[in-house]
Design a protein that fits this description.
With 734 residues, the chain is of the alpha/beta class. Among the domains are: 96 residues, Immunoglobulins (Immunoglobulin-like, Sandwich), CATH 2.60.40; 379 residues, TIM Barrel, CATH 3.20.20.80. A hairpin with a 2-residue loop joins β6 and β7. It is elongated, with a radius of gyration of 31 Å. The relative contact order is 0.09. Keywords: Carbohydrate metabolism, Chloride, Glycosidase, Hydrolase, Signal. This is alpha-amylase. Belongs to the glycosyl hydrolase 13 family. One of its GO terms (molecular function) is alpha-amylase activity.
């Protein structure tokens, strides 16, 4: 039965056997019929486009299904269709295992497309060209109502159910005997149960088919057109901007935004009270998480896992590898100290496929390894931002911890790591643990009142479309949900969105840069490292280390706590969690202000500090002599053999086409579909790996790691003999 503010109601039609539903099972989700029929129909929509709203279906609470009428098709013609959600493929519904459904337009060229959200079944009914259908979009009760039978199934049962196919008995009339009612000429009746008094009553409904009115219990297709229709440009009393944004504008005037989750002041770090009530999509942590299985090194395969719910629904997890399956690091001569000293080449804007091609060179040249930028599923857009498409810092806007990033898929990452390890080069990865993207997919039209009321719509992600993850900042007052990372509203601070390390280690990664560590409390950072230690068997791998982005100089005002915390105090916290000094030594700090401003936190021992000249936030024109000095005589050095044992050089790309896009083909203006008039910067695709390329030639990528003078300065620091450019394929370079 349907709860309507102190009444439980069911509408029964004994003529057509229909039911009333308590709510739209896909509430807040855009349900669209897509297929080959749209260009040929009266809608004139785009063929097979999941974001084509002209194929939008609406939920009928009387028939408990989604429906849409398609007119003016070619008669007696075959078409195909499916149902897509929120403008994306993935999770779409079809026929016979997910294939396209087929229908024939018949003699009228008009059909009713039907999707049953409970069974997932798609059906098609031929209708006359004059018939329309439009369900009533809102029957939910006001939030002030109280339902004393909440969370209980309430059914109206009786002899009329011989036609409806069920039988039950709970509360009756008199001393519990059966209640009696009679139907009207329309055969439709409203059954009412008042939960507080436990009184049952009924009311015959005089629905008249063909009278042009939308009546309670309406079952006549020709009258559906008078019911509220989402998409008819009329905001009915039962519609809001949340249930039908096409018809009803946002309730806030002007360019106002909701502020229910604003922080009270700068001291508030917890979630806003009441935010947990907005958990719609994400299961709570540890719910029914009782089943597990242990694996040992005897298992050498790739693990495929499927989770089955109590309703028999299934979730297939990404394939899992184990750290003992990773290819052994090829042993090389040199002062590598089991992976705790060496030079690392940072490949900014290089795809996994391009980096894989460099593994042999990096190993032969003597590098400790290569550093990749974020590899998790990331934000992508079809709308420009700051006049460009898919900016570089979108890579730092996670959607999930799935390893399908902009630079390549999980499979490509796995191949890259194994190939590099076979040549002696380790792989390090940028990890974003502090936050998720703040731009999710919801019913609201996002807008910024501080930028001329610029608006933006829903976004997508870097993952192949068939396995993209949902993410939301939804509702009247936005809250954050990232189901693929099991992160819900209470997992975030107020007014801002707030882990996958072991998965990357299991693929063979050797360490991480922790992005935005300055925004994470030292206690939490230590606790994260403790969890990694436990999951790695109680001890961090010998060649493992992380470096934390905590800038204690020019950005000291942005860090979680005072700079002094990241010296002796932080070391003591780490010792409490990690116990051994050798384990603490693997938690290093990034001196992001080297070489201009040194020693902002001199209490951090130098063997726990990493240095570099250029980074992707502040790239400068290449200056070879500074990179050579990085290894021969870095600024402030007192013991070049042991100070700052991890040093980075940057290979990136020139900003010939603006400073925000990446030349990977995903910052092209051609990818824009919304507000494209503001997209003024287009970055063409430029292949990063060129086997004969010199370090600084051209206007595409920089390749500092191929500079033979830098290489030999690094090799001398690592106690390796000089190497010729000819032996590395760079003999023609100057």
């Amino acid at each position: 039965m349907l709860f309507l503010c102190s009444l439980l109601v069911i509408v029964v039609s004994l003529n057509n056997i229909v039911y009333a539903c308590d709510k739209d099972p896909h509430q807040g989700v855009l349900v669209v019929a897509v297929g080959s029929f749209l260009p040929a129909s009266n809608e004139q929509g785009v063929n097979w486009s999941p974001s084509e709203t002209k194929g939008q279906m609406t939920f009928n609470p009387v028939t408990c299904r989604y429906e849409t009428v398609i007119n003016r098709l070619l008669t007696n013609t075959s078409y195909e269709w499916k149902v897509a959600f929120n403008g994306n493929w993935g999770g779409d519904k079809g026929c016979n295992g997910g294939t396209n459904c087929q229908f024939n337009s018949g003699s009228t060229g008009a059909v009713l497309l039907i999707y049953n959200p409970f069974s997932g079944q798609l059906t098609t009914i031929s209708i006359s060209s004059s018939e329309t259908t439009a369900p009533d979009a809102s029957t939910s009760a006001p939030s002030v109502c109280s339902n004393s039978f909440k969370d209980r199934i309430v059914r109206a049962s009786g002899d009329y159910q011989t036609e409806l196919g069920s039988a039950a008995l709970y509360i009756g009339c008199g001393n519990g005997s059966n209640c009696k009612f009679s139907t009207s000429a329309s055969g439709t009746v409203e059954l009412v149960f008042e939960p507080n008094s436990k009184q049952l009553s009924f009311r015959p409904l005089a629905t008249i088919c063909g009278n042009g009115q939308c009546e309670l219990g309406e079952t006549c297709p020709s009258d559906y057109g008078k019911c509220p229709i989402c998409g008819d440009s009329i905001c009915q009393t039962s519609e809001t901007y949340q249930t039908c944004l096409q018809d009803c504008s946002n309730e806030l005037s002007g360019c106002g935004i909701f502020k229910e989750e604003n922080c009270v002041d700068d001291s508030q770090f917890h979630a806003t009270p009441g935010v947990e009530e907005k958990r719609w999509q994400t299961p709570k942590p540890n719910m029914n998480a009782t089943k597990y299985k242990r694996y040992t090194s005897a298992y050498t395969g790739i693990l495929s896992a499927v989770i089955t719910g109590s309703d028999r629904s299934t979730l297939e997890l990404p394939e899992l590898d184990f750290i003992w399956n990773a290819k052994l690091i090829f042993n090389r001569s040199g002062d590598y100290r089991n992976g705790q000293k060496g030079a690392i080449a940072k490949m900014f804007g290089w795809t996994h496929k391009d980096v894989k091609e460099k593994c042999e060179f990096l190993g032969k040249a003597g590098y400790l390894g290569v550093k990749l930028f974020p590899v998790h599923e990331q934000l992508m857009s079809i709308q420009p931002f700051e006049n460009a498409m898919n900016l570089w810092y979108f890579m730092y806007q996670p959607v999930s911890y799935n390893l399908d990033g902009r630079m390549g898929t999980r499979e490509e990452l796995h191949d890259l790591i194994q190939i590099c390890r076979s040549y002696g080069a380790r792989v390090y990865i940028d990890a974003v643990l502090n936050h998720f993207t703040g731009v999710g997919n919801d019913l609201n039209q996002h807008r910024n009142p501080n930028s001329g009321c610029v608006k933006w719509g829903n976004k997508t992600s870097s993952t192949p479309i068939e396995r993209q993850s949902p993410f939301y900042t939804h509702g009247k007052a936005p809250s954050n949900e990232f189901p693929a990372a099991a992160s819900g509203p209470e997992d975030f601070h107020c007014d801002r969105p707030n882990v996958g390390l072991v998965d990357m280690l299991s693929l063979g990664a050797s360490g991480f840069r922790i992005d935005a560590a300055k925004h994470i409390s030292p206690e939490d950072l230590s606790a994260i490292m403790k969890k990694v230690q436990i999951k790695m068997g109680g001890k961090l791998p010998d060649d493992f280390f992380v470096w934390l982005e905590v800038l204690t100089g020019g950005e000291a005002q942005y860090i979680w706590t005072g700079p002094s915390w990241y010296g002796t105090k932080f070391t003591n916290i780490l010792k409490q969690d990690l116990i051994l000094d050798s384990e603490v030594d693997k938690i290093k700090m990034w001196d992001g202000l080297y070489p201009k401003e040194l020693f902002h936190n001199p209490t951090v021992p130098r063997h726990r500090v990493v240095i570099q000249n250029d980074d992707h936030d502040q790239q400068n024109p290449v200056h070879r002599n500074f990179e050579i000095r990085l290894f021969t005589n870095p600024n402030g050095v007192t013991d070049n053999n042991n100070d700052w044992p991890i040093r980075f050089i940057l290979s990136s790309y020139y900003h010939a086409y603006g400073d925000l896009g990446i030349p990977d083909g995903k910052s092209l203006r051609d990818l824009c579909t919304i507000m494209c008039e503001t997209c003024r910067k287009s970055v063409p695709y430029i292949k990063a790996y060129e086997p004969m390329a010199c370090a600084y030639v051209g206007n595409g990528h920089t390749r500092t790691h191929r500079d033979i003078l830098v290489i030999n300065a690094m090799r001398a620091w690592m106690k390796l003999t000089p190497i010729s450019g000819a032996s590395l394929g760079t003999g023609h370079c100057t």
